[in-house]
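About this split. The held-out portion is used to measure sequence recovery: a designer receives only the structure tokens and must propose an amino acid at every position. Recovery is the fraction of positions where the proposal matches the reference. Here is one held-out target exactly as it appears in the evaluation file.
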């Protein structure tokens, strides 16, 4: 279905572009994976780019969802900030990290002056700044890569006349021409008979930009820029190149290390120097205290320790290229699948540890940073099981978890999605999990335990709003029971007591308290004492959740 043409670049154009980019990368993901030979031939560039854009698009949709009940629409600044932030926290791999910086570079221009929209000249400036920002983020830029494609697109856009649609078309054409030239710039691409995979993905993103502005997809065929008659021929070419050892230096780094980092600019400058000495493929993107770090190293521990010294690293992912990778040329031994596993989304490090001790594979969801479906797919694959029980632990993740489940089912994994809406419901489900009984029976028991657990959270309101309990002001303490605001107060402990009393009016045998870092001192003691004094035969268990976004989570079962 054709899109409505956009004359200017506004919030709606950003939303449309993100959606079209996700669709374009979804259609070309397998092809891009197949031609991935640089910097490491691990066949995941298309997937990494897709997951990066998925996170960006999800963040943009969340901004629009916040305005659905009102007559206003998001501002351009709010939307592009969300896009850039979503890409930053969801960036995967070398190319995904660079794409995140491209989007951040655009956002820095598009948010100047808080304009409602920008014209063609603003788009030219945004594309130029994006290309420059991406190149600066890479420790040792290499021509014939996505950086070359981005630079060519920006140069072509700068020379174009007309409206935003004309600028986008020029950028797309410049990107296509640069992509076609990449084999002549990078020997590994020429030997494999392919163009740069990251550049191919960026061409798809620029094609989506054209469609967002004009309502029509570009007529140029991106397949024409890939050597060989088809995807299978390209895969064969890549395989031959790998056999000849041309895909990477012998004895190259064994690990890919990626993490988000909270740190000051000066500390990140020192981190870049240290990581550059440890390995290669170093890309550090971000700013304003939050960074995405990507590097290939032999000493993964040293790379993480460098992050700890610089600030606070989290969402740490370490991939061992290992036997069978281009660096070693060996064969990776097959690992036997376990029969059953549990994969759960958890809101804080403390609960992540608790779930892990109970045998679950966890995905950490930080405040304001919900995981994309690709992260859940990755977690299911990491669990390496024939059967998987998936616990989203958040009502807003229902569709994300369903999409992840559908994808891994196509890979032959049996998945059951239990619609847990809180981490305390997940704890109840995990408590009755028995991997040695029949899968269907285990799922029924876990679902029943989760459904029998009422859940609540005590949070601090960020803004004035209407609630089912009345109007709240910024700074008020809200007690939500089963997702709805039931209590408005001024003190966390007092509000928590009121919430707990209301929940126990319907009975209960066990109260679960999960304390966040922001919970006031002594709140657990007060609530435990309240249970002992007023509710006979009711037990209480307390966990430390860490940085979970809410001062307190409560479960009653």
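Reference sequence for scoring:
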């Amino acid at each position: 279905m054709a899109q409505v043409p956009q004359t200017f670049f506004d919030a709606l154009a950003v939303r449309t572009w993100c959606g079209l980019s996700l669709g374009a990368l979804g259609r070309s993901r397998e092809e891009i994976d197949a031609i991935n030979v640089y910097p490491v031939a691990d066949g995941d560039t298309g997937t990494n780019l897709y997951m990066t854009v998925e996170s960006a698009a999800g963040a943009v949709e969340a901004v629009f969802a916040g305005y659905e009940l009102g007559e206003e629409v998001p501002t351009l600044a709010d939307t592009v900030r969300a896009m850039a932030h979503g890409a930053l926290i969801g960036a995967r791999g070398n190319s995904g990290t660079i794409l995140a910086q491209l989007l951040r570079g655009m956002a820095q221009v598009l948010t100047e002056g808080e304009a409602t929209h920008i014209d063609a000249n603003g788009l030219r400036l945004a594309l130029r700044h994006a290309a420059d920002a991406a190149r600066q983020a890479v420790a040792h830029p290499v021509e014939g890569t996505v950086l070359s494609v981005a630079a060519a697109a920006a140069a072509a856009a700068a020379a174009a006349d007309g409206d935003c649609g004309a600028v986008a078309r020029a950028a797309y054409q410049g990107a296509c021409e640069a992509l076609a030239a990449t084999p002549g710039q990078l020997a590994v691409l020429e030997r494999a008979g392919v163009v740069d995979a990251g550049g191919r993905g960026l061409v798809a993103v620029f094609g989506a930009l054209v469609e967002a502005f004009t309502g029509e997809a570009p007529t140029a065929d991106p397949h024409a820029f890939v050597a060989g008659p088809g995807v299978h021929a390209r895969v064969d070419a890549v395989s031959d190149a790998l056999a000849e050892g041309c895909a990477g230096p012998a004895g190259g780094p064994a690990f890919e290390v990626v993490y988000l980092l909270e740190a000051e600019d000066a500390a990140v400058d020192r981190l870049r120097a240290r990581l550059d000495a440890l390995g290669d493929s170093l890309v550090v993107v971000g700013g304003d205290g939050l960074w995405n770090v990507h590097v290939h190293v032999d000493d993964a521990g040293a790379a993480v320790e460098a992050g700890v010294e610089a600030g606070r690293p989290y969402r740490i992912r370490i991939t061992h290229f290992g036997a069978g990778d281009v660096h070693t040329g060996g064969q990776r031994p097959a690992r036997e699948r376990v029969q059953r596993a549990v994969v759960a989304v958890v809101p804080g490090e403390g609960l992540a540890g608790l779930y892990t001790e109970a045998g679950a594979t966890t995905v950490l969801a930080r405040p304001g940073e919900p995981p994309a479906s690709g992260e859940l797919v990755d977690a299911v694959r990491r669990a390496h099981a024939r059967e998987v029980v998936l616990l989203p632990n958040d009502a807003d993740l229902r569709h994300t978890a369903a999409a992840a489940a559908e994808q891994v089912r196509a890979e032959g994994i049996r998945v059951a999605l239990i619609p847990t809406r809180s981490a305390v419901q997940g704890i109840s489900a995990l408590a009755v999990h028995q991997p040695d009984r029949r899968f269907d029976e285990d799922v029924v028991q876990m679902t029943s335990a989760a459904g029998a657990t009422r859940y609540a959270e005590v949070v601090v309101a960020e803004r004035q709003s209407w609630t089912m309990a009345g109007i709240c002001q910024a700074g008020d303490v809200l007690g939500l029971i089963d997702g709805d605001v039931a209590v408005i107060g001024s003190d966390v402990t007092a509000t928590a007591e009121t919430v707990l009393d209301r929940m126990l009016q319907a009975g209960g045998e066990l109260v679960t308290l999960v304390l966040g870092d922001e919970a006031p001192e002594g709140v657990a003691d007060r609530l435990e004492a309240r249970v002992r004094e007023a509710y006979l035969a009711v037990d209480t268990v307390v966990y430390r959740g860490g940085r979970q976004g809410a001062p307190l989570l409560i479960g009653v079962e």
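Annotator remark: The first helix runs from residue 11 to 34.
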